[in-house]
Amino acid sequence: MTNNDFPIDDIIRSRRTSMLVDKSREVPCELINELCELATWAPNHKRTWPWSFAAITGPAQLRFGNTVAEAMATFGDEPAKVEKARTKYARTPAVIVIGSAIGDSELRTIENRDATAAAVQNLMLAATARGLATYWGSCPKGANDSVAQFCGFEPDTTVVCIMYLGWATSTVEAPERPQPSINYLND
Ligand SMILES: Cc1cc2nc3c(=O)[nH]c(=O)nc-3n(C[C@H](O)[C@H](O)[C@H](O)COP(=O)(O)O)c2cc1C
């Protein structure tokens, strides 16, 4: 049931969570700017523009890892996970953190986060189309506020994604995907 008329379909299907990247090839700021701008075309109820972005490269990646590790340790995470966090954000040439603003009601906060998740997908698809690999990581438990502060976000920001980014060196095999279950209701 595939239709080959639309190039975007191939981009959607070929995007894979991957960290197989050229570690020595930097991702230029101009390109990161382009990806973040494309992210902002996501649907957004009430046009609250809830997203915020931080691009972390170079020595800041290890500083970031240490900040996350300290927050994880304070939270009481396992020592092995804490130590791993110190270096794990330096595995790709760039990391982009994407935050979502608190709303003026519980519903708006949820909608803001939904919009931000859509923005993340925009960013990943645009990156895929340009030959970049992306990997969506969650913010470790207890580290949200430290990450938001490190990134220069507003204090109430929810960190939606810590994204690893780099030039892809290989493609990742696509897993089998179950067909969507669609209930058609028409009477
Ligand atoms: C909201 C969200 C959070 C995620 N957090 C993590 C994470 O913390 N660690 C991780 O290894 N993968 C994380 N992922 C990536 C998924 O594991 C990945 O999308 C999944 O394995 C399917 O692979 P695919 O993206 O190549 O289809 C996250 C994905 C989403 C949408």
CATH architecture level-2 label:
3-Layer(aba) Sandwich
Cα-based radius of gyration, to the nearest Å = 18 Å
Broad shape: globular
Assembly context of the chains: single chain
Total count of domains: 1
CATH topology, what is it called?
Answer: NADH Oxidase
What is the number of strand segments? 4
Q: Strand order of the main beta sheet, please?
A: 1-2-4-3
Brief rundown of the structure:
This protein is an alpha+beta fold and 187 residues long.
List the helices and strands and how they pair.
Layout: H1 7-14, H2 29-39, E1 51-57, H3 60-75, H4 79-88, E2 94-100, H5 106-129, E3 132-137, H6 144-151, E4 158-167
Antiparallel strand pairs: 1-2, 2-4, 3-4
Helix pairs in contact: 2-5, 3-4
What does this structure look like?
The longest helix is centred in the middle third of the chain and has 24 residues, at 106-129. It is built from 6 helices and 4 strands; from the N terminus they run ααβααβαβαβ. It is of the alpha+beta class. Helix 2 crosses helix 5 and helix 3 (60-75) runs antiparallel to helix 4 (79-88). Helices cover 41% and strands 16% of the residues. It has one domain: NADH Oxidase (3-Layer(aba) Sandwich). Strands 1-2-4-3 form a 4-stranded antiparallel sheet. It starts with 6 loop residues before the first helix and ends in a 20-residue tail after the last strand. Flavin mononucleotide binds next to strand 3.
